[in-house]
Amino acid sequence: MTHGFNVKATLVLRRIPTALAMLFVAVAYVFFASYGTFEFRRTKWDYKTEKPGEGYYSSLAEGFRNGHLSMMDKPDPILKAVYDPYRPEVRDKYGAPYLWDASYFEGKYHLYFSPLPVLLFYLPFRWLSGGYPLDSLACTFFAVWMFVMSVAALRRALANRKLHVPFWIWILLLGLGNVLPWTLIHVRIYEVAIVAGAAMTATWAYALIRFTETGSARHAFWMGLWLALAIAARTNLGVLLLITAFVLPLRTWRTSWKQLLACFIPLALTALSLAAYNYARFRDVRETGITYQLTFVPMRSCRRCSLRTIPEGIRVINNSVHYLVWPPHMYSRFPYVDLDGARLDGAVSFPNVVEHIAGIFPLNPVVAIGCIVTLLLIPRRRTLDVHARDGLRLMIGAWLVLAVLTTCWYIVVRYSIDFWMLMVLATAIMIEYGFTNLQDAGFGIRPLRVLTIALAFYSILFCSLLGFKGNQDAFGRGNPKLLEALQKQLNAS
Fold this sequence. Notes:
By secondary structure, the chain is mostly helical. Helices cover 61% and strands 2% of the residues. The chain has helices at residues 2-33, 56-65, 77-81, 88-94, 116-129, 135-157, 167-176, 180-183, 189-214, 217-233, 241-247, 253-282, 310-325, 360-363, 366-377, 386-406, 417-440, 446-466, 474-478, 480-490, and strands at residues 103-105, 108-110, 329-330, 337-338.
């Protein structure tokens, strides 16, 4: 009895750092998303703020509640009368009011963003509370989802292993060694859609690890389902189909048709549902609404993501530099750090807009170590155990997502969320397995362990400080008193 009690008590004590780290990250998300107030109010469907793009999902949810696929916002009669409302100079000539970045088609407003957040959060919240959530609350919900599933995936991949880096440090790095603190304090429809897609991706990663453990049709189904929802949220995540295909036992059809079918069914059903949704709105199964987007340029004539010409090839190189190594800006006034704007060629990029961007290596240099370890382990992939190969797959998947993003004409810090969490998750797996292999080969890894832990704390601190800045100094505008108090205490004299 006493021995059993002691064992249980020891297990509980070991889990306390993990639980505290997860709680700390969740509280940090809520803190930044609420400007440090920990308060979120309910709203009506038609609430709007000075931030273009905020409140659009609530309008779409209300449209769904009223039995149609368009937003509840109604276009102004002047806009309806304009002969070509997609050209900004024409809208300006007639003074036509319009909903920025909405998709306008046949007298109705639609969204070119996925309706998935509406189905998973906005409508359930409306049914439970009688009002709509702020976009910041919705984004926090999906951010916590992404974080929890990433931790669950990492825990499965590192189960029953002696770790070289304490697990609670990996948790903090997963949760805060990224641009979420920066993102959560300036939330609109853009950030909600992206973080929702990342939440689906993290859940797919967990399902993939479970499938490689069991090979069961049940886990193949969940892997296909969460990948389908990830693609529904962010179409560029479709590149993860390549990773999923290599996990499935394609060479043994006679014994694996159940797994293949189980994975294919949710993918097919989701694809058909999205095609039907697009056709019902725009009479084109491939049209998501971007062609009819009301923005700086007429989108019907634009090639948004491609690699066909030399200038577009140079754009890929420039975008890669931004996503990978673009440095932040540091100064002596709290919060000491800020992100710099992108430098793009207007000839092959979205015109008239310069937004902040962050390189993953300067903000989370542990990922650089993970990528190096991955390169060293790829030639030995056949000798690795199942979870180490999972780490390889996830790392390759993250790089494929990044590669797709570099072909696009518009880059911004929030886009990096598509691959950031997945890359950090893969980094943690690869470092743990790689350090073990180095140790087994007789190498001393203590300096590498110390370096990894030191860089992890640097990343956690650095990225958390970005949360007190944000796009357009969002934290200071949202809670100027708190920021002023912190600056009085922490500014350099």
